[in-house]
Each structure stands twice: as structure tokens, then as C-alpha cells.
Amino acid sequence: MLRSMSTCRICDNPVREFLDFGRQPVSDVFPEPADIGTEHFFRLAVAFCGNCTTVQQVEEVSRDRMFPADYPYRSSGSAFIKQHFQRVAAHYLRTELSGQDAFYVEIGCNDGVMLGAIRDAGVRHLGVDPAEQAAKVASAAGCRVHVGFFEEATAREIRETDGPARLIFSANTISHIAYIDSIFAGAGALLDQGGVFVFEDRYLGDIITHTYFDQIYDEHFYLLSVSSVQAMARRFGFELVDVEPVPTHGGTMRYTTARAGERTPTEAVARWLELEQAQGLWDLSTYEAFAERVRGNCAELKETLARLRADGKSIAGYGATCKSATVLNYCGIGVESIDYITDSTAEKQGRVTPGSHIPIRSPEVFRANYPDYAVLFAWNHAEEVMEKEREFKLSGGRWILYAPDVRTV
Known about the structure:
By secondary structure, this protein is an alpha/beta fold. Helix content is 35%, strand content 24%.
């Protein structure tokens, strides 16, 4: 089921579309070669609300299509991400979860990287995630997980069973959820008095500054900013009380919200609002200029690959990411340009990329016969990847990056 809209999902005012990526597949569903042609497509377009400053997609893809039981992403696949969540868990164990009989709830717990650290500390916890296979991994490690989508009804059931939560946390999930009203209603029903709802998500300011256009795909229904989260929280009876940038996914912001009047906002909120206004995040013209840069980058990437191919160079991709779906399908890049994409996720290997149908191979294939060039689709893990694959560079291989501009390193 697809839902299209011309009004803002937060404040009901008209929105202005500024970038259309055209026909796109569901980004994290990788077909078997025999199933090519069965993918579901939608129009990926983004719009700006001049009233509440929310950037959002025009067409909503059904949550069941995006997050099926066999959803393949695993948080534990990156050492950097694992270390990040261990630090986050340690912080909250010292602060919000330090009281007696504290209860922690995580929306989108995936395979339990963060949840496991809370479990190890002996704190009551519950993860909520619709991806059954990922949830099984977390459960097998001793974490409590509810398989399903978080919404108001779920939150009320949890409260009745487990009592109020001191902390509701979510990482890289809240922007996926178009029905954000039910999320905040659920948080309001589940939180203890004085409790907080904290979420981390890709930061709009970094996406615009660095032309990270591939952060726009079906799962990222909202591109969040301090201004839009503040408006969102107020709309649903909450208040944004703190913000903090964190170094994941090429630029992430952590938002701390509480019921209105229960906590005093920090100076960081006002400071970041000023920075966003100065950057132009409240102006449609900023997004129109971003769209022009995106079109230029895509044209240059396609021309670069075509030129290298004409010179007889072999080219692979690195990281069958959700982000790569936007790049490959918008730019019209397929097997004529990229031989295969390597990915360490076993569930993706032997399949093909959605829409563009490029074969996905294991890292062993990549290392057995290095290509001349590799397009780094997993650029948000560039440092980790380049260290792990340093032999590729030593063998004469070169990485191709496409944001903020197209270049080889």
C-alpha cells in the first residue's frame, strides 16, 4: 500500500516538493536472481514544510514492505557501531537508568547491540522490533524482545505488563516511521514521570552540507533537524530538552524529549536552532540548491564509470547498502558499469541489488581478485572499511566516492 500526500504529516500545512528521485525499489529487499522483476516500486520524492521546517517524503511505503521478518540489516555488522552503542549504554546506565528498578525500552532494537549492554548491567529491559530474524538473534543472547511494531497500543500493553519506562531509546529508527503521532502518544503512555524519550537519527544539516543524497531512501521518511523535532515534539505534547551531535552514519543528532514542562531545555537546543537558521534549513531555496548539486553529482558519477569502463577498467561496489539503491536507480547504474557489489552480510550474498540487479558477492570474492576501482557505497564506514581493505589500496586499487563530490582516492 502506498500513501501519497501534499500536506505535512506533522502540522497539516502544504509542503513544497524539491527533489524527485523517480521510480525506486524498496531499498532493503534484495531479490534472488530468479525473482528479478518482482520488486515493488514507488516514487521517491521529498518535500519541505515551510511552517514547521519538516523535510519528508511525498509517498509513504507500507511498513510491512520495508521491515519484513527477514529484514537483513544487522547493527552488529560494524565494529564502530558496536563500540558506539556500548558507550551510549554506559552513559545511560550512569544517568537515566541508575535508579532502583529502572525499566528501559528500545524501539528498533535489531540484533540487540545496545539492548545487550543494558541486559549485562542487570537492568530491566524490553526491545521492540518487527524484524523477527534479527529479534531472534537478540533473544538468543538473553535479551527480552517483543516482535512487532511500536505504536500507542503496543506501549500501553508494555506499561500494563512491565510498568512505566524511565528511558525509551531508539537509534536510526524514528525517521523511518511516518505515523509519528502514534509513536509520541505511545511514549507519553509508557514513560514514567520525568522519564525521557531519546532518539538518534541522521542529521539533515549534514545531509545538506555534504550532499549526502543517498541518505534519502524509502526507510528515511523524515530527514530530521533540531527545528523539525522541536515542532514535532510540541505538536504531540512533548518538549525537546537537549540535542547532541554524534559521529555515526556521516552525521547524526541525538534528540532528548520529555513531556512538556517536566524538564528544562539545555542551551544546546537554542544554539543549534540558531545554527540551522544561519545554514538556511528554514528556507526552501536551500533545498532547491541541494537538488541541483544532487543532479550534478549523479551525472558526473555515471560519466566517470562510463569513462573507466571505456578504458577497460574493472569496477566493483563496496557495501550493498540501502543508500546504494537510491544512487544506482536514480543514476541508472547497473551491471554495464559495476560487475558486482561486495557485502559482508551473509543474508545478502548470492542475491542482487533491488532495481539495478547487480550481483552481491562475499568479501572473499573481492579479495581474491581485486578490481581496479571500487565504489564505496558504505561511505559512512569509510575509515573502518579502508583499514580493513588496506590491501586493496596497496595492490593499486582506488576508491570512488560521490559525496560531497565525485572523486577517487
